[in-house]
């Protein structure tokens, strides 16, 4: 089957667009994951602080 160069160019552009979209999605996913990790870390820290306060009030 014959495919003219213009068709190849259009296909290449579509492939590049799809690749860019996939990269952007992966980046957004990684960002969301990092945010979730930071949130969990902050939550654990707050919980540890609250526990330390409870322990010191029991001992104090």
From TrEMBL:
Region (Disordered): 14-60
Skewed-composition ranges (Acidic residues): 14-49
Designated name of the protein: Colicin import membrane protein
């Amino acid at each position: 089957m014959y495919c003219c160069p213009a068709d190849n160019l259009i296909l290449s552009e579509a492939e590049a667009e799809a690749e860019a979209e996939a990269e952007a999605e992966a980046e957004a996913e990684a960002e969301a994951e990092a945010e979730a990790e930071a949130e969990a870390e902050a939550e654990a820290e707050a919980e540890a602080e609250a526990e330390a306060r409870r322990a010191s009030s029991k001992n104090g």
